[in-house]
Design a protein that fits this description.
The chain is mainly β and 332 residues long. 4% of the residues lie in helices and 45% in strands. Strand 12 and strand 13 form a beta hairpin. The N terminus is likely disordered.
Length: 332
């Protein structure tokens, strides 16, 4: 179950104090002209609508396998989402001992999941997969966003919490090339500000990192109200943190859509499309989603390629209110 951290608190205070866009493009309204929006991609209330697919307590993260299987982490573990012949969706639990599920990644037909207690679970993607614990992370406030690097290793964000001494960073979990179920070592790959840096604007140091996605040798992440990129260099080290966009917001996870990034605005209940060059392209209306926590483009056979899947966490730390769900945003 995700807890409310320092980054979330600070950004939320910022939302109360200012109502302006400090980024590199328009931060409000519907779709804008120009940019690199795919021809048939809609991320605006002017052209699309939301459909709730099913309830999932404290829905947190989602990922598709290369074959189009959909997996979602939530307050009660990790689930595979399936659709029956009548078009109804269901959630099958696949990690009975996980507790609360967070970041997800897929590598070599294995699904990896961060679970409560800073534990890494993994399992082969058989017809009926079961994830089991393979490693416990150390020195982490909360292991949250996770992505697979081009080097075949896992990269995990340490998100600062109000219950921990802030130590934001990205750690690398080095996997055994001969055994994808074995972690050889944990090491800090990007060290953020140890004091969290209460400055809300663009910066080249991590303060409140949360979501993480990879594309080739480049990672994209959320950091409070900022989006950033950081490269995996040939020697395995990290390049500089490169700010992309900022507005006063509480961003959770993100997804990659060609030349653009799909982003959740957790506090205001919006999803947005922002170019990798730092231009706000499209956004839904405020309050459409109940604290959106992750976002991805759809994949066949369950969804169309221009569908957008969103997890909604609902009320933090609550697994019972009917606000926690997996939703679909689709062009009308």
């Amino acid at each position: 179950m995700k807890q409310l951290g320092i980054g979330t608190l600070v950004a939320a205070l910022g939302l109360l104090l200012v109502a302006c866009d400090g980024g590199q493009g328009s931060g409000s309204g519907g779709s804008s002209g120009g940019g690199s929006v795919p021809l048939d991609l809609c991320v605006s209330s002017d052209c699309g609508e939301k459909t709730v697919l099913l309830d999932l307590p404290s829905a947190e993260n989602l990922i598709f396998s290369p074959e189009g299987r959909l997996f979602v982490s939530a307050g009660l573990g990790v689930f595979e989402i399936k659709r029956d012949g009548a078009g109804a969706y269901s959630a099958t639990p696949i990690a009975p001992d996980c507790g609360s599920g967070l970041g997800l990644a897929v590598r070599q037909n294995r699904l990896y999941a961060i679970c409560s207690g800073q534990r890494l679970f993994a399992g082969e993607l058989t017809a009926t997969p079961t994830l089991t614990e393979i490693f416990t992370l150390s020195g982490m406030c909360i292991s949250n966003g996770m992505a697979l690097g081009a080097d075949g290793n896992l990269y995990v964000v340490d998100e600062p919490l109000n219950l921990c001494v802030p130590d934001p960073k990205i750690v690398r979990l080095k996997l055994d090339p001969a055994d994808p179920m074995r972690v050889l070592a944990q090491e800090t790959w990007v060290q953020g500000s140890p004091l969290g840096q209460l400055h809300l604007g663009l910066n080249n140091v991590l303060r409140f990192p949360n979501g993480l996605q990879s594309e080739g040798n480049r990672f994209y992440g959320t950091d409070g109200g900022s989006l950033y990129s950081v490269d995996l260099l040939p020697d395995g080290s990290a390049g500089p943190v490169q700010p992309i966009y900022f507005e006063v917001a509480v961003r959770d996870d993100l997804g990659i859509a060609g030349d653009d990034l799909l982003v959740t605005d957790f506090a205001t209940g919006r999803i947005q499309l922002i170019s990798k060059a730092g231009e706000m392209l499209q956004t839904t209306e405020r309050g459409l989603f109940s604290f959106p926590s992750s976002i991805r483009l759809g994949r066949p056979p369950l969804f169309e390629a221009n569908d957008i899947l969103v997890t909604e966490t609902g009320v933090l730390t609550d697994n019972n209110l009917p606000l926690d769900r997996l939703s679909l945003f689709r062009r009308r």
